[in-house]
C-alpha cells in the first residue's frame, strides 16, 4: 500500500451520517427490520401460491432457458440495486413452487453479476481525473470480471453435471435431515402471524384470487426492499468503527486469505456487498489501496452477501428454497477455490480489469458503453430473445 494504515479514510466519512441513536436502540431496530424482511419473504411466497397457476406460469415463461434465467437475475438485480433483494425474491419464488430449483441456479448467478453494477457506477464519479479514474475503474471492474469468469466456468459445469444443485441438495439433506418434505422452521412460525394479518386485511377489503395474490406480492416486495435498505444503513452505523479498524489491520498485513475473510465478515455485518466494494473504489482512486489489496476483499464480499438468502430460505420451511440459497454460497466459494489459489488464475481478473481501465481512461465512452452494455443492453436483449 502507498500509505500507512492510519491514513485510510474513515468509513464514517464515506456517505455515512453521524450516530444519533443509542447503540442498543439501533440494534433492536435492526432486529425489528429483520422480522419485517422475513415477513416480506413469507408474503411474497404466499402471494404467488394464491395467484392462478396459468397467470404465474405465463409470467415466468422462458426462465427455464438457462441464459434467459441468467439475464433475468442480472437485470432484476440492476433494477433494485441489491443482490440481497433479488436473491431473496428468487428464494421466495422457489418456495412457492413458481420456479424450480434447477431453473433458479442461473438466476442466482445472474444476481451475482448484477450486484457489481453499484461499484462500477461509483467509479464513474472519478471520470474527470485520468489517474484516479484508471485506478477506480480497475477496482470496480475486477469484481465484474471475476464474476463473469465464474459464470463462464460454472454455468456450463452446472448444466452438464448439476454440480452446484446436486451438492447443495446433499448439504441441505444432511443439515435438515430431509431433502423433500417441508421442515419445521421456527422462523416461519414467527412470521406466520403478521403475514396472516396482512392476508386477512386484504380479504376484509374485498381482495380475492389474483388481486389478493398480486397485492401480497407487492406488499412482500415492499417489506423486503425497505427492510434490507434500513438494515444496511443501521448495520453500517453500528459496525462502522470496528470495520474501519479491521480494514486497517488486515490490509496492512497484506494477507489475501485474511482479506477474503474480512470481506465476508464486513458484508455479513452491513448486509450489503455493494457497500463493501463501493467503499473500496475511492480508496483505490486515491492510491491508498492497490488493486491487489482490493481484489480478495471483493471475493469475500461475494460470499458474505449470500447470508441474506440463506436466512430468507430458512424462514420458508422449504428444502428446495434452502438448496437454492446454498447454491449461491457454494457458487461463490467454488469460484474462489478455482481462481484464487493459483497465481496465474488469481491474476487473470486483475489483468483484464487493468486492460479495460487503460482503455476506458483513453476513451471515456468505453466506460459508459461497458456499463450500459453489460448491465442493461445485453441482459435486456437476452431476456427478450430467449423467453
List keywords for this structure.
mainly alpha, 18 helices, 0% strand, globular
Please explain how this structure is put together.
With 387 residues, the protein is mostly helical. The chain has one domain. The protein is 79% helix and 0% strand. The protein contains 18 helices and no strands. The protein has helices at residues 23-50, 53-59, 66-80, 83-95, 101-114, 117-123, 130-161, 163-176, 186-204, 209-253, 256-270, 273-285, 291-304, 307-314, 319-339, 343-346, 348-362, 364-386. Helix 4 runs parallel beside helix 14, helix 7 (130-161) runs antiparallel to helix 12 (273-285) and helix 14 runs antiparallel to helix 15 (319-339). The protein is globular and about 60 Å long. The chain starts with 22 loop residues before the first helix and ends with a helix.
List the helices and strands and how they pair.
Layout: H1 23-50, H2 53-59, H3 66-80, H4 83-95, H5 101-114, H6 117-123, H7 130-161, H8 163-176, H9 186-204, H10 209-253, H11 256-270, H12 273-285, H13 291-304, H14 307-314, H15 319-339, H16 343-346, H17 348-362, H18 364-386
Helix pairs in contact: 1-4, 1-9, 1-10, 3-4, 3-5, 3-18, 4-5, 4-10, 4-14, 4-15, 5-7, 5-15, 6-7, 6-12, 7-12, 7-13, 7-15, 7-17, 8-15, 10-11, 11-12, 11-13, 12-13, 13-15, 14-15, 17-18
